[in-house]
Amino acid sequence: MSFQAYLDNIKAKTGKTGDDFKKLAEKKKFLQNGELDPKVKAGEIVNWLKEEYELGHGHAMAIFAYFKGKRD
């Protein structure tokens, strides 16, 4: 599955884009000024996405990769 397919599936499930998740992550202090806080571990973000948005591990990791700058 391509990275874009992951993002498309996430949007279909949650109604949110990668940028929407970035805004939500900023409110939770996982990101600051659009950049991933280096003290935040992938597991924290994955757990948040699993709990609040019922994403699977692979889809949550795709959002984490999006936060790190992956776009394709």
Automatic annotation (TrEMBL):
<dbReference type="Pfam" id="PF14117">
    <property type="entry name" value="DUF4287"/>
</dbReference>
<protein>
    <recommendedName>
        <fullName>DUF4287 domain-containing protein</fullName>
    </recommendedName>
</protein>
<dbReference type="InterPro" id="IPR025629">
    <property type="entry name" value="DUF4287"/>
</dbReference>
